[in-house]
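Quick entry, no commentary yet.
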Amino acid sequence: MALFKKKGQGVQRKVNLKFTIDCSRVVEDKVIVMRDFEKYLRENIKVNGKRGNLGNDVNVTSNARAILVQSDIPFSKRALKYLTKKYLRKVKISEYLRVIAVNKQNYEIRYLKIFNEEEEE
């Protein structure tokens, strides 16, 4: 790994983080538009305290079913979940969907399980 020095700090290792958000279940039902979600993440991810300041440090890409966030600087997975939930609230579908951590590097957007009392009786 490459080493670099920051002013006023000791030697730090270069971080190489990859996070994915799997949206395959909701994209099949055309609930989320991937292009809009990717654009929202690009505009709202903070780098050095400034929104939309991705530069070469953070890269956001998407394919048909998932969003991939790659970072060369320390980046919080929790912040990615927060932004995903914020996007779901913005498009007013947060009541029906939730964001679940599948493993250390992946999130998945799933439907909420709503139990109907009439079906049980």
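second:
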Amino acid sequence: MIEEESEAEQEIPLPNVTSEVLSKIIEFLNHFAANSFNPIEKPLKFQKLIDMVPEWYVQFIDLPHEKLAGLAAAANYLDIRPLLDLVCAALAIQIKGKTPDEIRSHFGVVNDFTPEEEAKLIEEHKWVEA
């Protein structure tokens, strides 16, 4: 006779979520359960994360942008809105006021657009500058 797995023993697939990221998510959720923060207003009204959330969250999110990207992807996949908003706010603060070239340099992104393609994109998305 085949025994059925209990709910506690069932595996939950988490594609593209590393154990390091999962550990950070569990740390966040454990802290958030007892010490939540008010929703982060959008558009961001402040230039510093400390003006939006308690100090613990500022320290928690003080990670290289590569790790923030993995945390954002996992928070999005797992639908953890407060964590996703926190990570996105941290990334937004990092790029606010920077030129496209400065942003590319910050994140190590290669510009593979021709000058013509880039000019067309700028023209099509003028609203971004508003």
